[in-house]
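Dear Dr. H.,

I hope your travels went smoothly. While you were away I took the liberty of generating a structure for the chain from your last submission, since the lab meeting agenda had it listed for discussion. I wanted you to have the full record in hand beforehand rather than looking at slides cold. The sequence, exactly as received, is reproduced here:
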Amino acid sequence: MQVVYKDNHIIIVYKESGEIVQGDKTGDVPLSETVKEYIKEKYHKPGNVFLGVVHRLDRPVAGLVVFARTSKALSRLNEMFRKGEVHKTYWAITQNVPAEETGTLTNWMTRNEKQNKSYAYDREVPGAKKAVLKYRVIGHSDRYHLLEITLLTGRHHQIRCQLAHIDCPIKGDLKYGARRSNPDGSISLLSHRVQFTHPVSGKEIDVVSPLPEDKLWRSLNP
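The corresponding predicted structure, in token form, is as follows:
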């Protein structure tokens, strides 16, 4: 686990692909518990350590995760996420490239809980929620392309689903149409940057993620 930013109220860490943010039915140790142990040891805290989960990243996705260290920060961050005041930028590697170098994707998405998969439609359908993201192509290699993505809504598997819908599935994402998996089971999607006003101090937080240990990420890095 790599700590990217910390103060008395928040801690931002880099999540490796394959880690889970919160405990689930797998019983694997979640990142939240690893962060609690880190805080407990670093600051010699007796008893239970408070840590609030304010958002999640899919298991195969790497990048920045923000946690709250106080109940005040947790309630305020929850409200900021709800209002869209936390700005997150993602990088995605795709084999196909969108028709336009920059664009906005607007779809209506439904979620299938049994499949743990979402579906995108070009028009409104029953039970669907509107999903909007902006993208721009920022890098190329011989076979792959690097897209920068800004989410304007927060839907289940939104980036994965919307990119697949325009025939640009994320590298390694078999669930959404990639041709083959990545050797380490990851998908080539990175929570790259997070920007927000600190929920307690009011100062501007702007943090950038390290790149995954993968030559392709480094070769595409603009």
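Two observations you may find useful: Residues 71-83 form the longest helix (13 residues). Helices lie at 31-42, 71-83, 158-165, 215-220.

With kind regards,
E. W.
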